[in-house]
């Protein structure tokens, strides 16, 4: 309980808060942790090749069926933001300058209403045309086995290019690294939630912040190899932890 009170006080005093989130915040919405013992990274042998940049480039038509199956795209609209996502948005509504750096690609931080979200591994909720960059939403993706661009070009011809999902595929660089790091440096509180911090290079951001005097807190069910970076760690569920913090903040 002491750490809950400490975190509550840090949030009260902070003006700029950066949250760094991983799968643990989304599992509370029912989304599987893909790196768990039962996740797709364990149960889909050879999946990395099927959702790689090289495979998309070599076989864009063949890419889409395994991509949709591996990520259960048809179910994505069923998942909703939970109390952890909503807590962050409430801080924003209370006038805090909130930034979210997330490893998740489910779009739930944005769905909860948080305005400044860096999805460093991209998002499953959109796909874009490689030629004209037109963005298409999840409904369009789900309603087309092989989604293609429907834009009319200058020659009054349909573009018809096969769309590319807006996630970071294997072989892609991560997105928004510099923007994420700069925002983290500008914060006066850095909170890591629901991640083992095993995935690089994005896990270097907490390591960089650990060299500063910015207060750092970890909320995670399990210990990580980087716990010594933090001022303190709370080994518990995100939702239940933040519900206790919210009581102390008295929104």
UniProtKB/TrEMBL annotation:
The keyword Metal-binding is assigned to this record: yes
Residues reported to bind Zn(2+): 129, 132, 149, 159
Domain Deacetylase sirtuin-type span(s) in chain numbering: 1-251
Keyword Zinc: yes
EC number: 2.3.1.286
Pfam family, one: SIR2
Catalytic residues (UniProt): 121 (proton acceptor)
Record's keyword terms, sorted: Metal-binding, NAD, Plasmid, Transferase, Zinc
Record PROSITE patterns: SIRTUIN
Signal peptide annotation: none
InterPro entries with a match to the protein in the record: DHS-like_NAD/FAD-binding_dom, NAD-dep_sirtuin_deacylases, Sirtuin, Sirtuin_cat_small_dom_sf, Ssirtuin_cat_dom
GO molecular function, one term: NAD+ binding
UniProt protein name: protein acetyllysine N-acetyltransferase
Organism: Priestia megaterium (Bacillus megaterium)
